[in-house]
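pls design
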């Protein structure tokens, strides 16, 4: 009787055709903490640091698969900046600054010369950094924080929040009053570049000395292409407060904010597309190391990670017939630009078929020299015929390979590779 019921369930499951399986572009990682994480910094695809409330500092060296706690502080930590894998600085409430030169094995408290809360810090290299905060606080170091020098602006901006330098001398600061400060001489002089009434700004990022983006309340996104001489508004499609922004090139960027908001662009902000985050927690900071690989952090120790640029993939089952073997079809169209569809069959063994089981499936794209470009699929799939679309907007033209790897619940493994051509 049990056998008949099991077979019925299996047959019922496969009577449905064209079922869409959504593979979220953003997946949670175990941070090991429930503290609010306020800031995030990655120096490469494996090495990153996040900081938050009650002195929480966590570090990963394996792309976030594990996060380990560092430091034993109790301060509210607001911002982190690393110049390389070993050298970094964290700032927080009451002028608190700590610095490491050995990847966080030891953290040394530095004299900030202020008691004002510091909200942002950025180092352009191991020596040159700037920290900003309440009461118009601007601190500058040229020796890795051994000494911090106080700088002054025009006095119009008091609540400084975000700071970014595109070079040792050229940088900008945002404020809660909607004032943007700019320097071209390392902060010797700070000028009020623009003032936007009733609009505060949370975060700032420059991809080069000319092109930058700032974000803030009410879905505000402003962009400049002339070093801040002019700032133009972009349509975010949301009214929530936006808190973090990053770009990997002039076209590809990501913004995060309240209510689990994640926005993504591949055309320099002409269009911002909302991506599902799977959370309603505020997201405070975001970091990407290439167009596909990124992280964001937020309330409750939340860390989300993507390896496909945050895109929601639609893996579509296109046949109700159970395949007789594993098979990877030639992509179509081929050659293609910028997207192509890949179809494959997942087949169970007889004993697995009876239980309606499939196995772990990976679909990976490699370049012509064997470097992994993107993992398109990495999940358990039941037996069936599937199709998925792959977009190569950020890839150079040329030959690529896509490989289907599948392992069944009984331990059998299969691997098939095919070649495709991207024309640009």
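designed seq:
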């Amino acid at each position: 009787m049990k056998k008949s019921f099991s077979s019925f369930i299996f047959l019922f499951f496969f009577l449905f055709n064209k079922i869409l399986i959504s593979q979220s572009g953003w997946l949670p990682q175990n941070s090991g903490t429930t503290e609010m994480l306020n800031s995030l910094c990655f120096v490469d695809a494996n090495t990153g640091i996040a900081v938050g409330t009650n002195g929480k500092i966590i570090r990963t060296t394996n792309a976030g698969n594990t996060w380990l706690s560092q430091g034993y502080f109790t301060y509210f930590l607001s911002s982190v900046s690393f110049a390389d894998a070993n050298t970094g600085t964290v700032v927080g409430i009451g002028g608190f600054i700590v610095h490491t030169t050995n990847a966080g094995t030891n953290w040394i408290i530095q004299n900030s010369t202020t008691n004002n809360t510091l909200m942002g810090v950025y180092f352009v290299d191991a020596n040159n950094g700037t920290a900003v905060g309440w009461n118009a606080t601007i601190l500058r170091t040229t020796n890795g924080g051994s000494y911090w020098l106080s700088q002054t602006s025009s006095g119009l901006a008091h609540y400084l929040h975000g700071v970014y330098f595109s070079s040792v001398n050229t940088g900008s600061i945002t404020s809660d009053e909607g004032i943007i400060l700019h320097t071209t001489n390392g902060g010797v002089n700070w000028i009020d570049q623009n003032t936007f009434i009733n609009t505060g700004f949370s975060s700032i990022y420059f991809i080069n000395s000319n092109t930058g983006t700032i974000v803030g309340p009410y879905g505000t996104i402003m962009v400049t292409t002339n070093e801040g001489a002019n700032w133009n508004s972009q349509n975010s499609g949301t009214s929530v407060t936006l808190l973090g922004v990053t770009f990997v090139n002039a076209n590809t960027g990501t913004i995060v904010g309240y209510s689990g908001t994640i926005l993504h662009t591949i055309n320099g902000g002409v269009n911002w597309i909302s991506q599902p985050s799977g959370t309603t927690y505020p997201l405070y900071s975001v970091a990407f190391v290439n167009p596909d690989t990124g992280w964001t952090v937020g309330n409750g120790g939340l860390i989300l990670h993507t390896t496909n640029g945050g895109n929601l993939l639609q893996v579509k089952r296109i046949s109700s017939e159970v395949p007789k073997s594993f098979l990877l079809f030639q992509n179509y169209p081929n050659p293609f630009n910028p997207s192509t569809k890949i179809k494959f069959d997942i087949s169970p063994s007889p004993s697995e078929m009876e239980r309606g089981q499939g196995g772990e499936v990976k679909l990976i794209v490699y370049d012509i020299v064997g470097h992994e470009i993107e993992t398109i699929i990495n999940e358990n799939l039941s037996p069936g015929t599937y199709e998925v679309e792959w977009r190569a907007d950020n890839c150079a033209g040329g030959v690529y390979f896509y490989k289907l790897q599948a392992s069944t619940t009984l331990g059998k493994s299969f691997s098939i590779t095919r070649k495709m051509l991207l024309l640009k």
